[in-house]
Every structure is written in C-alpha cells, then in structure tokens.
Design goal:
4-stranded antiparallel β-sheet; 2 helices; 108 residues; alpha+beta
C-alpha cells in the first residue's frame, strides 16, 4: 500500500485527502469494502482498479481517496492515522505516519 497526502484549494475553499493505492500480485486484485480508524468509518472513495508494474508480471491495484475534514487532517498530523482496511479477500492494518500530514500542513 502506498499513500500520498493532498490539499486541494479553489476559490478560498480547501479540501484534504489521502490518496491510496493497494496492490496485489495475486490474480484476484484488491477490492476495498471499507476503511476504519479505530471505531470511525472513514470516507473512502474508490477511483479505479488497474493493472500496474507490468515488468515481470502485472500487479492488480485499487486506487482511491480518504476524504478528510481539516480538523481530522490536523489531528492526524499530531498522532498519525491508524487504518484497518477490510477488503473482499483480505484485511490489512497500517498506520499513516504523522509526518505525511505535517508536510502538507507546512505548505499552508
């Protein structure tokens, strides 16, 4: 899994999100059903399901975004964001480090 924090600004409005990409080498690609942080269900939106990194054999991947409020994004900059990802075929646990969120907030 790879993640990237983003800030979108337009007409004085700001939006915060974390872009995600989950890969599997298995013939059945990942299919995320939900993402949680503790007991909170995150606002995850699937963007696409792709074949990527086709050098030796292709990996199936799912790209998406976790949409966040500015307050939640700032909280994650202090504590990081633990994730519990439930997919059709598997469950994953990960933590997005606080420094990823801090780097975005430092641009404000």
């Amino acid at each position: 899994m790879t993640v990237r924090g983003i800030l979108i600004a337009r007409d004085g409005q700001r939006g915060f999100a974390v872009l995600t990409r989950i890969r599997r080498l298995d013939p059945n690609g990942p299919l995320v059903l939900e993402m949680r942080s503790g007991d909170i269900r995150l606002d995850y939106r699937r963007n696409d399901r792709l074949l990527t990194q086709c050098q030796d054999r292709c990996r199936r991947s799912e790209t998406g975004a976790i949409l966040m409020s500015e307050a939640t994004f700032r909280q994650a900059a202090a504590t990081g964001l633990p994730l519990r990802i439930s997919g059709r075929r598997q469950r994953y646990e990960a933590t997005i480090p606080a420094r990823l969120f801090q780097a975005i907030l430092n641009t404000l």
